[in-house]
Amino acid sequence: MRLVRSSVALFRLGAAILLVAIAVRASQGAEPRVTSAQIRRITDRVNAQYDSLLALYHHFHRHPELSLHEERTAARLAEELRAVGYTVTTGVGGHGVVALMKNGPGPTIMVRTDLDALPV
Hints:
This protein is mainly alpha-helical. It is built from 3 helices and 2 strands; from the N terminus they run H-H-H-E-E.
């Protein structure tokens, strides 16, 4: 079951990357059409990072933190985002993390996620 959830999470990541590629292409006045070569490049990139993404997924789910107490989760997320080139601001509204990736003119894409876990 965990592998299925991980695969779904990675599929969503790939889909998000694909949507970004479409938005960038459209902002450049190009036909917002995705080619099979682009899909292959995205799939290859996700596959190349699969093990590290799966390990990160497992880490977050093995070390859940309740709402307003996500100190370690926020720190790890900030660390991971910095490692791939984002400018990171921490401590936003408590343990919030804001990450900014600049890649030139074009559309702005915003993603929001929750960091907290629910007690079970």
